Amino acid sequence: MTFIIALIGFSGFIIFYVLFASAIIYHLRAYVLPGWTAGRISIMIFIAVSLVLVAMALFYFIKIPWEAYAECPPFICVID
Amino acid sequence: MLSLRNNETVSIVIRRHWWILVGPTIVFMALLIIPAAVTAVGTTYAPRLLDFFAEPIGEFTTVLYLLVLLIFAFLLWADYYLDVWIVTNQRIIDIEQKSLFHRVISEIPMRRIQNVTVEINGIIETLLKFGDLRVQTASEGSFIIENAPRPHEAKDVILHYLREDAENLKNPDGAGL
């Protein structure tokens, strides 16, 4: 159950991120003159770094023992 | 994509001076090192906090934090990059990116320009050669680009096209020559 809630939250974050990033990229493509390359280069760098970070987030998300955290949340429960 | 008219050429593109990005960049760098700082402080003062960041949930939280920082840095860059004055031989196009979905695009034909004023106010502005460039028009009031780099050069270019346009009006046969 905890995993499902976390997955919904993470999916919501990613959807919001993609929509917001798409809006910025749209503006950077729509309101430039043909010769302006810095905008395109920044878009490519942003997409590359975003993909790496999203992949890392997904990797760590899968590694998290959600059900164990449901029983023993971090900072609240101490296992000795 | 923005388009130009026939026989229209871009002379200069004016963006705000890089100095105005220094403050946000320092804040961004400070926010970027927070996870590393928390880890360093946690080693001494809060071992449980350190344990949290060593676990997958801590690493996951850090990556989400970096994603949020990245998109805000990109938004800041887009705002800087799209907030621009394009001076062509026929007009000035003022694109003011107020926020992501709030943009004001104004066009000032050269023949409407009445006065161009440069204001450099401050030590840093004087040393780094940037200041406010104000263009006054006959009908729409004044347009201002704040923190324009080398505003005197920009003013000279605008006045050059202004004079050229005035001469073309006087001698229509020689227009464009």
Structure, described:
- The complex is a heterodimer of chains A (80) and B (177).
- Chain A is mainly alpha-helical and 80 residues long.
- Chain A is built from 3 helices and no strands.
- Chain A has one domain (2-71).
- In chain A, helix 1 packs antiparallel against helix 2 (38-63).
- The radius of gyration of chain A is 19 Å and the shape is elongated.
- Chain B is 47% helix and 29% strand.
- In chain B, a hairpin with a 4-residue loop joins strand 6 (130-137) and strand 7 (142-149).
- Chain B has one domain: PH-domain like (Roll).
- Chain B has 6 helices and 7 strands, in the order βααααββββαββα.
- Chain B is an alpha+beta fold and 177 residues long.
- The model of chain B has no long low-confidence stretch (mean pLDDT 85).
- Chain B has helices at residues 22-32, 34-44, 47-54, 56-82, 123-128, 151-170; strands at residues 10-15, 84-88, 91-99, 102-109, 113-119, 130-137, 142-149.
- At the A-B interface, helix 1 and helix 2 of A face helix 4 of B.
Q: From the alpha-carbon coordinates, what is the Rg of chain B to the nearest angstrom?
A: 24 Å
User: What is the approximate shape of chain A?
Assistant: elongated
Q: What helical percentage do the residues of chain A reach? A: over 70%
Kindly report the oligomeric state of this protein.
heterodimer
From N to C, what is the helix and strand string of chain A? HHH
Q: Could you name the CATH class of chain B?
A: Mainly Beta
Could you give the count of β-strands of chain A? Answer: 0
Largest beta-sheet details of chain A: none
Distance between the termini of chain A: 26 Å
The residue fraction in helices of chain B comes out at 40-55%
* CATH topological fold name of chain B: PH-domain like
Please list the strands of the largest sheet of chain B in the order they lie side by side.
Answer: 1-2-3-4
SS strand fraction of chain A:
under 5%
Number of strands of chain B: 7
Largest interchain contact: A-B, 33 and 31 residues
Please report the distance between the alpha carbons of the first and last residues of chain B.
29 Å
Task: Please state the CA-atom Rg of chain A, rounded to the nearest Å.
Answer: 19 Å
Mean pLDDT of chain A: 87
Task: Report the mean per-residue pLDDT of chain B as an integer.
Answer: 85
